[in-house]
Design goal:
Rossmann fold, about 160 residues, alpha/beta, two-stranded antiparallel ribbon
Amino acid sequence: MIDSGILAVGLDVDGTLTDGSFIWNSENSIYKRFCYLDSSGISLAMSIGIRFVLISGEDSPIVDRYAAKLGLTDYYRGCRHKDEALRSFAQKYELDLKQIAYMGDDVMDLPAIRIAGLKAAPLSAHPAVLREADFISDRAAGYGAVRCLIDHLWGETLNR
């Protein structure tokens, strides 16, 4: 664990909480896979007062469903300006952007990554994102990358 001063985490969804793939069936339903390591890590961090916000470029009800499952009230979907969403979240909770970590995987995430106090990326992120990251998970997106970030920041507290 590090004493980072991080009090909140912003997360991209597709390519960060999921592996970025989707299954599209003949009835036009889309399925996405989430990792329980990430979900349980988010729940554990929330139990010690850490806030989370989901910021998705996709306008998918799957984001609503995932947020509801975890009890998250802060999320943006269909978001084209992720930095604006992160600023709005920070303002809502009177947080300095330095107190927020943001994890994303692709170039659409770079504006939010660049303003966050801790810039994080899954191992499978686009090279442009990896170059800007302060923290790179040793796991790929959708396979516990978010949990690695949570353990890096608060593991000693959460694993007691």
